[in-house]
Amino acid sequence: MFVPLAILSLISFQAAAVAPPGPWDSFNFAPKNRTSRPTSIRTVSGDVQNAGALVNSSAGATILSGNGSFVVVDFGQEVGGRVLLTVADATSDSRLSLSFTESAEFISPVDSDDSCRTVATMNGDGVQSLPVPLQQGELMQTVAQQRGGFRFMTIVSNSDSPVSIADVGVQNTFMPHWDDLRAYTGYFFTHDPSFHDPDFLTRLWYAGAYTVQTNTIDVHQARQQPCPPHGWANNATGGPVEGPILVDGAKRDRNIWPGDMGISSHTELVALNDILPSKNALLVMFSTQDPVTGSLQYSGPPINAKGSDTYIAWSLIGTHNIWLYTGDLDFVKTVWTNYTRAIAFLEGQVDETGLMDVPQAFSNDWGRDGGQGHNSAANVMLYQALVTGAELASNLGDSELSNAYTANATALKNAINNLLWDEEAGMYRDNELTSLHPQDGNALAILFNVTQGQDQNKAISQGLTQFWTDIGPLSPELNDTIIPFVGGFEVQAHFIAGEGERALDLLHREVGSFSCTRKISD
Question: Which of 7, 9, 25 is nearest to 192 (CA)?
């Protein structure tokens, strides 16, 4: 993470100690214990008595009477795990269901926001009906029923028979290997005087850290794929490892995607000094290797997507990140045979132009269009894989392989600049057959040092601003869509180009424009 020194008040990373107490603690979203309770009542509809008891355990029980009566509880921020509640009183005819949403916009007594399948009407998940007959005592969702990420929960009576409930909460299941979810080793605190929220950057840092925490799950709590006919199920196995894995999202997909780790692994280390979930995730990705071709999968199980050169490269680059942050050569040795075969698979696609010619079957990426052919982003990523692979080979004592990777990286860098650089535009083309200048290929070219000098970096930095809107940068390689994942690389690229103010401007547009990220608990 690049931070302009002019605005920096304090940033620290401690390898072995928990961060010291300070004003930054008030921005830490991590709960103080495993069980989170609602902080307020959002909505009451129908015959609901004593709804306030759901946020005040000493006030007794809440009574729902009448089919369709419901109460919406607000946990104050994103939580994720197994819902628990106590049925204080019920009849054999009493019925309850639960629905969930991250945003107040999708609160509904009959639907949850989608977590397992994408439906245009946002009603693919439906509700979760509690077992009948309702038994007095504490109920807790199964692991499969857990909701990976939500803020609002709607409790609905589905019969005319009254039911009394109390002690509603959620047992957070993320970061399963941590006892204290707030035991950050990194901390950050700064003021942003040019923005309407002077604490914006501090909020952003802690929101990112908490997001990575919620995305760290037990390997046996991945999302089932395909989805069940109704609802969702989060008890799939995410790979042949044990312990925590770093996935792409707490609610969906709950699956390893190595491209996402190109950002989240760095956050995990800087904020939490915890690289184990990333290690496990990469072990999973190398376990997916095709024994014939040497290719790796696009994602881990249970989705098991295939066909992405760029995501193969992200697995390779991520391996170097693990070594860079830990010095753990034993981990590198464990995957080295798979690693070198994966690089060979990518290098086998380099043609007479000196560029990798991405086949259609391996052109999948983060969702962009036009990933095939002499794609600039894919070639930039192969370059980074070769450069970092050379360093790993050298540290393993294989100077011959290290030199080969270095020579191939040098040749590839020259080919990228000779064939894809558009001098008039001051940017790289998506490939030699198009005039499109992609956000990803250009941002990554700066980030991974494919450019040949700071003048090129500054030209690209300026060029990328042509795609900006008031709420973030459009990505021309996906029909003018705003992609925060790629925007994260662009922010870093502006800092590297020496355009820190521009990077902050982009952060203010891309993140500050969305109320949900100004403050998770707003």
Answer: 7
Residue 388, pLDDT above cutoff 80:
yes
DSSP string, 280-292: HHHHHHHHT--TT
> The tokens of 33 are what?
């214990």
CB atoms within 10 A of CB 328: 14
The phi and psi torsions of 90 (rounded to 5 degrees) equal -165, 160
Other residues' Cβ atoms within 10 Å of the Cβ of residue 409: 20
Q: How many angstroms separate the CA atoms of 12 and 231, rounded? A: 43
Q: Which two tokens stand for residue 282?
A: 């990469």
DSSP string, 153-191: EEEEE-SSS-EEEEEEEEEE-SSTT-S-TT--SEEEEE-
Amino acid at 187: Y
Q: Take residue 360 and report the two structure tokens written for it.
A: 């259609």
pTM (predicted TM-score): 0.94
Q: Is 12 exposed, middle or buried (0-12, 13-18, 19+ CB in 10 A)?
A: middle
Q: How far is Cα 101 from Cα 60, in angstroms, rounded to an integer? A: 26
Q: From residue 191, how far is each of 8, 9, 320, 445 by CA, in Å?
A: 8, 7, 33, 30
What is the CB neighbour count within 10 angstroms for residue 345? 18
- Residue type for 323, please? W
**CA–CA separation, 393 and 361 (whole Å):** 29
Q: What digits encode the pLDDT tens for the residues 72-109?
A: 999 999 999 999 999 999 999 999 999 999 999 999 99
Strand spans (E) along 267-315: none
Q: Which amino acid is at 365?
A: D
User: What is the total residue count of the chain?
Assistant: 522
Q: What digits encode the pLDDT tens for the residues 403-454?
A: 999 999 999 999 999 999 999 999 999 999 999 999 999 999 999 999 999 9
Q: pLDDT, tens digit, for every residue of 268-295?
A: 999 999 999 999 999 999 999 999 999 9
Residue located via tokens 């690049």: 2
For 157-178, the pLDDT digits (tens) are 999 999 999 999 999 999 999 9
Contact at 8 Å (CB) between 318 and 269?
A: no
Phi, psi of 459 (to 5 degrees): -65, -45
Query: At residue 323, what are phi and psi to the nearest 5 degrees?
Result: -65, -45
Is the pLDDT score of 16 beyond 90?
A: no
How far apart (Å, rounded) are the C-alpha atoms in residues 247 and 280?
11
Nearest to 20 by CA among 10, 30, 29: 10
